[in-house]
Protein 1
Amino acid sequence: MLFALSTSHKIGLATMGAIFIIYSLVSAFILPRRNPNFPGRYLVPYILLSIGMFALMMGAVLVFGKEPKVAEASAGTTTTQTSTTGTTTTSTPSTGDPAAGKVVFMNSGCSACHKFTAAGASGTVGPDLDNLAEYAMHANQPVEPFTSAAIEHPPAAYVPPGYPTNVMQPYGGVTMTPTQLSDLVAFLTTQ
Ligand code: HEC
């Protein structure tokens, strides 16, 4: 959890922690050595002071431990959130550029096999990509990861009846860069 905190908050926490530790050491070792009766007649003030120190430390944890919520505006980044239960890290896939994706679609020969109205494609070897959302629903997956996986490593998680599952080549890895792939997925899924 410490790693997720901003530097100033870490310094604040560390300083408070150090003060607390020094206070504990002094009252546990140094004061009793100089005055074997310690806390003796200072008992009540000592207890009050200890409670005060404890409250201060807890306050510091509450104040400094709370990371200001950083608005994670841009997609395609890793967001780290701190909570009392620990640290959760989620990765959002990059959002591609549909216009660039259209160029990828036109240049990759997808039109030869697929119908996709936005690209003026009318192939019939593969499924009609105008119905991608419906196929993803059959596969019980969100449409972006469904589409991305279908292009990277066919066959798709759901293939409508009547289409061969061994003719579309895998476009993942060398054939297409991750950017081209996410652009292409954006083009296919934002129509
Ligand atoms: C040689 C013909 C052919 C080419 C070229 C081709 N596909 Fe396919 N595609 C198919 C066939 C057949 C399927 C159905 C079986 C499967 O998923 O492999 C399919 C499935 C898909 C699916 C999943 C649809 C579904 O649910 O079944 C997507 C998305 C897709 N193709 C996109 C593309 C894109 C984008 C390109 C270009 C980069 C492309 N395809 C190139 C033949 C082709």
Protein 2
Amino acid sequence: MNGARNMAARALAFVVCTLALTALARTAPADAPRRGEAAYLVMHSVLQSPRCLNCHPQGDVPLHGEEGASHAMHVSRSSVSAGLPCGSCHRSQNGNSAGSPPGAPDWRMPAAEMPLVFQSRTPRDLCAQLKDPARNGGRTGAGLIEHMAHDPLVAWAWHPGPGRSVPKESLESLIRVATLWVSEGMPCPP
Ligand code: HEC
Ligand code: HEC
């Protein structure tokens, strides 16, 4: 009798203890940066996919293909001001065959004054850049999410036309991790 009561008491203590620990883990503020950092790393892997990098290069020339070769035909940020708009070849829809220009509404790359470089940025550096209004086009965290959720150039990366890979994460999971990162205060990996 005594033994059974002891065991019941011990089981109860175990359950209470587990519940307390679970509640603690859920609310512990120390966990937030780690969750946010993990979310950022998933987002970073998408930003570094060829489809995104090709329009967010380090230099002034857009890239193409899976390896980021320089765009042919002297196309660059400055070829636009020299009178060769991207839209003269890139239409609002993809060309039908491999090697034909991909297309989406208002095809362009970021302007020279706000180049939004993703290429060759470490997770820590790109994370810091993305939350710096002086280097992110004046966007808040909500503005970043909004851009990625609704911009046709971002959406294009999942419908890139024949012969081009798509990012490993879906657009939905990109938005999910970006939302988590922002809600955790946009922490950056060390
Ligand atoms: C003279 C025609 C022409 C002009 C002008 C042009 N492009 Fe292209 N672009 C192409 C063609 C053709 C391809 C496809 C190359 C391939 O996939 O083999 C291409 C591919 C690309 C890609 C590669 C997409 C990918 O992920 O593989 C990007 C990015 C790109 N262009 C950006 C631009 C930007 C930005 C501009 C304006 C600054 C521009 N292009 C102007 C013809 C042009
Ligand atoms: C055809 C070119 C093109 C492609 C492809 C492209 N982008 Fe962009 N991206 C732009 C341009 C242009 C801007 C600047 C838009 C503006 O400020 O109005 C931009 C801005 C952004 C911004 C805002 C940057 C900041 O620091 O605030 C983010 C985030 C972004 N792009 C993410 C992506 C992601 C993710 C992908 C791939 C899934 C992608 N882009 C593919 C052209 C492109």
